[in-house]
Structure prediction request, 122 residues.
Amino acid sequence: MATQLKSDALMEQMKLHMSTDAGKELTKKIGLVYQINIAPKKIGFNEKSLVVDLKKGGVKEGAYEDGKPDATFSFTDDDFLKVASGKMNPQIAFMRGAMKIKGSISAAQKFTPDIFPKPSKM
Prediction:
């Protein structure tokens, strides 16, 4: 059974976000496919993969199967939420080793908190 991650709720919101006008604007603007690997505690262990497709507009669980994603990111659950919510700058996350990137750096640079829906107030 997959571990419940804190970021699961954000990904659910992201799925809804993709069907809104704002989500459709994103696909026009970015046009890239990201795979995000989220680990409960330590990058590389028990990761859950999600694909955020900003080409077709969609979010799904599992690895990307249509060739290679434009960029793949690995985070721990907590750090992913910090980056997605804008509490941690992606460049700083990368320099601290809180985020690992594979793939195109120019594609990776378009991965910003702006692509995520603003979390509803807890």
Remarks:
- The radius of gyration is 13 Å.
